[in-house]
Amino acid sequence: MTTRRTQQSLVLALSLTALTGCDAINDWHAIEMVQRNMDNMVFVEGGEFLMGNPGGWAMGADTVPAHDVVLDDFHIQKYEVTQGDFETFVEASGHEIKARF
């Protein structure tokens, strides 16, 4: 088994563990949602870039001073989370939504 497949299996297992306590139909929706989202992950190679204002333009407090940022390799989903997936996650995980909108 490749390292990538092992990592995906581990993330899937951890995600499913977090979504316990559902009835059978909700379990199926949660499992399907997690697998679909895992299948839509893409690899992004890490690297370094300059973050902030190197001078001469907008001077917001969050842009000064310019500094180097180093990111490790990571995976990210290539599509936005759908409202349906969010609702499945909220229901399966027992999270409470405090925002009104």
Automatic annotation (TrEMBL):
Per UniProt, the keywords (alphabetical) are: Signal
Gene3D superfamilies annotated for this entry? Answer: paralog of FGE (formylglycine-generating enzyme)
Domain named Sulfatase-modifying factor enzyme-like is located at 38-96
InterPro entries per the UniProt record, alphabetical: CTDL_fold, Sulfatase_Mod_Factor_Kinase, SUMF_dom, SUMF_sf
Q: Which first-to-last residue range defines the signal peptide?
A: 1-20
Pfam families for the chain: FGE-sulfatase
Name of the protein this chain belongs to: Sulfatase-modifying factor enzyme 1
Q: Which PROSITE patterns does the UniProt record give?
A: PROKAR_LIPOPROTEIN
